[in-house]
Amino acid sequence: MPTTLTRTAAAAEAVELTKVYGSGETRVVALDRVSVTFRPGEFTAIMGPSGSGKSTLMHCLAGLDTATSGSARIGDTELVGLNDRALTRLRRDRLGFVFQAFNLLPTLTAAENITLPMDIAGRKVDQEWLDRVVATVGLAGRLHHRPAQLSGGQQQRVACARALAGRPAIVFADEPTGNLDSRAGAEILAFLQNSVRELGQTVVMVTHDPVAASYADRVVFLADGRIVDELSLPTPDTVLDRMRRFDGAGRTS
Ligand code: ADP
Question: Of all atoms in ligand 1, which is nearest to the CA of residue 31?
Fold first, then answer.
């Protein structure tokens, strides 16, 4: 990992980030000059109605999609203008991902799935860190099982451990509990929270679930491609309350 003596305060940052899909009749402004900062060691939830730009924001910040204008940074690295190869390397070396689908390789054990991205990258595994991640995730007894031998919740824990194994600058989680029952979902959310509180990681999670969002330190609300509000120390009730107000008032501009 490079030494970053002049590290900025942000783990990730968007400044006036704009994403336009299509042109003419089919033109859609998915992100409309979005500016937001994700600080290191913070767990942020991104919420908003369907089509409000949540996935687009995450994808542009994670180098999975390219913005039309503005700036998207991971630490000190500007993503806008990077070529595909550089983006692939950035994702591989500095980011962790947890998706709704667990995306594990069925022929590999849990342990092999967890270290696969590092093995592919030829990076040495920091065993002490990995042991902490596995202990935090609560997978110690399941490391030699294959995905088919694990419950959905356990598979998602493997995916979380895989996302954290390389000690990324930031973990992006896209509806990580979408395929889980509420108990397994609560375990994953508690784990993501612990990875921030105990391991000092940085997590940004897209969710539509107020209970899931309440595990975060902060909720950012999107509507029509713009950030319309923020909430610190959310509870399910305060999140629901905000969501109802947006439903009633529409865009606040
Ligand atoms: P959310 O994640 O909040 O549901 P999205 O970021 O997926 O919202 O989408 C924001 C807007 O951009 C929507 O109007 C959506 O239809 C549009 N959009 C998303 N991806 C594409 C695409 N690949 N091509 C065209 N329009 C898109």
Answer: 10
